[in-house]
Amino acid sequence: RTSTAIFAEDAKINNMIDLDSPKVVNTDTLEAGEKKVYCRCWKSGTFPLCDAAHVEHNKACGDNVGPLIVDAAKA
Ligand code: FES
């Protein structure tokens, strides 16, 4: 694929999260020893946290996306 494909309407990644917003940005803070699992497939019903919707997405289209797991070290 060429870089122009990235801007094609059919290449849109987000089809359900804050669609009225010009840019979806989330911030979060982790406590020491806390772990969070963040969605990277844009299909989660609990976005920005992963709800395992990526599993169904990968099955449906052969993709291989998965979450970002962040683990804050204990102080
Ligand atoms: Fe999107 Fe898990 S639901 S990465």
From TrEMBL:
<keyword id="KW-0732">Signal</keyword>
<keyword id="KW-0408">Iron</keyword>
<dbReference type="GO" id="GO:0010506">
    <property type="term" value="P:regulation of autophagy"/>
</dbReference>
<dbReference type="GO" id="GO:0046872">
    <property type="term" value="F:metal ion binding"/>
</dbReference>
<keyword id="KW-0001">2Fe-2S</keyword>
<feature type="domain" description="Iron-binding zinc finger CDGSH type">
    <location>
        <begin position="23"/>
        <end position="60"/>
    </location>
</feature>
<dbReference type="GO" id="GO:0051537">
    <property type="term" value="F:2 iron, 2 sulfur cluster binding"/>
</dbReference>
<keyword id="KW-0411">Iron-sulfur</keyword>
<protein>
    <submittedName>
        <fullName>Iron-sulfur domain-containing NEET-like protein</fullName>
    </submittedName>
</protein>
<dbReference type="GO" id="GO:0005741">
    <property type="term" value="C:mitochondrial outer membrane"/>
</dbReference>
<keyword id="KW-0479">Metal-binding</keyword>
